[in-house]
Specification:
The protein has one domain. The protein is 81% helix and 0% strand. It contains two helices and no strands. With 83 residues, the protein is mostly helical.
Length: 83
């Protein structure tokens, strides 16, 4: 398999996980907050706080994955500057 094909499959794999992790982190934040609200009778404060934390974690992961994909798409310049 050629290097170009490997890069393509790596990029497709990374892209497929972005949407899943965004949803999962949001749902986990909601569930934890909802559980804590039931435990401490503070509805809806923990749910809102952890929901926002989950959304923020999802977007941070989206940012990190985008940076990683941009690095994969960039041509390999290591040999040009080693002289």
């Amino acid at each position: 398999m050629e290097e170009q094909d490997r890069k393509l499959f790596r990029m497709l794999g990374a892209l497929s996980t972005v949407g899943i992790t965004l949803v999962v982190s949001t749902v986990i934040g909601y569930v934890v907050g909802h559980y804590l609200d039931g435990l401490f009778q503070t509805t809806p404060w923990f749910m809102l706080g952890f929901l926002l934390l989950g959304i923020a974690a999802g977007f941070k992961n989206l940012y990190d994955q985008t940076r990683k994909l941009m690095d994969l798409d960039r041509p390999n310049d290591k040999g040009k500057h080693d002289r």
